[in-house]
Amino acid sequence: MSCINATADCPPLDAEIIIVGTGFSGQCMAIRLREAGFSSLLLLERAQSVGGTWRDNHYPGAACDIPSHLYSFSFELDPDWSRVYPGQREIEAYLQRSAERHGLLDKIRFGTRVTGARFEPDRQIWRVETSRGPLRARILILGTGGLSEPVTPSLPGLERFGGRHFHSARWDHGYALEGRRVAVVGTGASAIQFVPEIVSRVQRLHVFQRTPPWVVPRHDQAFSPLRKALNRHVPGFMRLNRWRLHWLHELSALGTVVDPRFMALGMQVAQRHLRQQVPDAALRERLTPDYVMGCKRILISDDWYPALQRPQAELVSEAIDRVEPEGIVTRDGRLRPVDAIIFGTGFQATEALSKLKIFGRLGVELNEAWRSGAEAYVGASVSGFPNLFLITGPNTGLGHNSMVFIIEANVAHIVGALRRARAQGATVIEVKREVQASYNRGLQQRLRRSVWTTGCKSWYQDARSGGKITTLWPGFSTQYWARARHFDAADYLLFGARPSGV
User: Residue 482: what are its φ and ψ, rounded to 5°?
Assistant: First the structure.
């Protein structure tokens, strides 16, 4: 029996719209929906506080690599950022203040982990499975982010290791590193921040490097009282500075998506930085990448190279063969005894939703639909999954600018879709299959000309599809903003009559 017009056997909705996650994505979505007049909202958060990735990644030295005045909401500019590049605690506090200021806390159900969801065609709703029981909503919006599920490599023998091991995203602050022999596996964006913080605390530090990253100077500094006063009291000062930073970062896309040859200048800057900080030619050679800058994530640091040259530090370029109870053995047969292993090995960026079992209109599970690589329309909608929206979904990531800018454009698109559905009295909205297919063909054509296809392997690529890039946007962030922020009803199917009493 259809539940569209029935009430006796059909439980009521828990909310018209359920939003999963309370980081930048979930908060921005909730704030903009409330501004648009949508009041029946429920936010689900697996932890006991807001913050998303900036709550979870609390390793020593955790900080953003985008300037604070750009890595914040356009509608929530903060004159009191302490420095150019904000640390984890400061960003988490910013998100906490944002949730409080916009009255979101009473809309959040904390300690509620989403495990899956199924679209029920008879009622035209989503049944959301959670750790605290099922919930029902007309619209389901996933704001879980692409950097929420850490990756730990399957090293042979790791289960037999006699010491402590953990991922940087699950940092064990109860384990004292002082006087310990520590192995760090990975030299990516997290390791480059926490290694300089812990090197002076440990007895011995072995940093296992598979591929050296391109590193450019950070030039971080604290903001002066005068600068904060200008932010607070001079009208338009912060917004003008925000746009200045935005366009400076946009220039980097010339090398990533227009022509990789534009990366030559950035490579010169990085090579000069390496020469200035590493006098030893042999070590410098091991720290020099052999791929085009930008093919992997570009990192910023002023203390990474000095940390690797501390007396207690060793850079290990030999591949890991196995883990023994007492330490790590490399391919050359050498055993390095260690008390702890810290993995700075990144996240499941191409399979960010792989742990969620989400079934669409025809009973197809989302991971099955994406078996050849994830794809969506403007990163927000997936054909076959009506009333489901993603924030920072496939091909919305950036290698050069602020993801908060992308989030706001992404959210504007979703709000436009829901406003149109409300205006037409529609209960179901779904992107047309041919629109999604055409959009993604264009994306992949543009990606083939990008720096990310110049030969290196990175987390930008989806191994399930032979290296298809499913994470990054192949253009300027402003181009995504222009494409996504306005909703075009011609791209979607809208149908169904709103049931009475809902």
Answer: -65, -35
The whole-angstrom distance between residue 266's C-alpha and the CA centroid of its chain comes to 24
Give 391's DSSP letter.
Answer: S
Q: Which residues contact 383 (CB under 8 A, 6 or more apart)?
A: 377, 430, 431, 432, 433, 435, 436, 437
**What's the one-letter identity of residue 446?**
R
**How would you label 432-459 residue by residue, b for 16+ Cβ within 10 Å and e otherwise?**
eeebbeebbeebeeebeebbbbeebebb
What pLDDT shows up at residue 349?
Answer: 63
User: Residue with structure tokens 């490599």?
Assistant: 153
What's the CATH fold of domain 158-222+227-233+263-343? FAD/NAD(P)-binding domain (3.50.50)
Q: Does domain 15-50+104-149+348-495 have CATH number 3.40.50.300?
A: no
Question: Token pair of 368, please?
Answer: 């099955």
Cβ atoms of 62 and 169 within 8 Å: the answer is: no
Low-confidence ranges of the chain (pLDDT < 70): 1-10, 147-148, 349-352, 465, 497-502
pLDDT attached to residue 7: 44
Tokens, residue 280? 């030893």
CB 15 within 8 A of CB 39: no
H or E element, residue 244: helix 237-250
Assess contact for 241 and 77: CB atoms under 8 A.
no
To which H or E segment does residue 435 belong? Answer: helix 433-447
Q: So where are the chain's domains?
A: 15-50+104-149+348-495, 158-222+227-233+263-343
For residue 71, the model assigns a pLDDT of 97
| Rounded CA separation 140/454 (Å) | 37
pLDDT digits (tens, 9 = 90+) for 172-222: 999 999 999 999 999 999 999 999 999 999 999 999 999 999 999 999 999
CA 424 to chain centre: 34
The structure's pTM equals: 0.94
**pLDDT per position as a tens digit, 424-436:** 999 999 999 999 9
Count Cα atoms within 13 angstroms, Cβ side, for 149: 12
Q: Token pair of 266, please?
A: 């950035």
